[in-house]
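Exercise 3.2. Students should predict the tertiary structure of the chain below and write it as structure tokens, then compare their answer with the key that follows.

Predict this chain's 3D structure.
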Amino acid sequence: MAKRILALLTALTLSTQADFADATEQVVRFKAGASSATLSGSVSGYDGMDYRLGAKAGQSISVRFEPSNPSCYFNVLPPNSNDVAIFVGSSSGNEFTGNLTQAGNYVIRVYLMRNAARRNEKCRYTLAVETSPKAARKAPSASVDALVPGTIFNATAEVPCSRAAGQPTTSCKAGVVRRGNGSADVTVFWPDGGSRVLFFKDGQFAGADISGADGDTPSSTTENGLYLIRVGAQRFEIPDVLVLGG
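Answer key:
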């Protein structure tokens, strides 16, 4: 059981509010003597675009994204991630700077959010990618918190949760990736499998990885140091100290 829980905690599903029917891949190559490149492309519907970038541990990478569609974002995935992200654009914006802790192929994934994908909308974009041989002094998009050993999370906890209307509250494992300034992604793992990602920005609940089947727009109130969150019929009680630290 302990191994199963650890596997769940290390499997933060990154696709959030997007499903991918297909993803085209392109290798990022710099011109001789250069350490940056500006790429352009387009995605539509549920089709995404993956840019594969080889890097070494100790380097830093910076990505700046300029999309034509406000529902178009990018994520950054580390080597061998199984769709686990170290940066989620839909909750953290269109710029990323991060120090790399492992060597290998990183993936910059461009996609449309589900609301735009299901309408088969299109997004044209430019993507500026830069690497540095040394770690960046400041990485504003990365968490400054230490990680829980063996996980990608800054903290883990048990939180009250309920998966369906009329279902009594039970206890779910949860992990948080803090991004600074009150922004964080909390992943709640259901005891019988699956997970839900809850997004926070500036200390406020900002949304969840919802689909059309979830029904109502997510909502939240605060009470006695808890975020009382509803996503459709699902209910969560998230301590503010888990989100904000301290």
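Discussion points: The chain is about 10% helix and 50% strand. The two ends are 30 Å apart (CA to CA).
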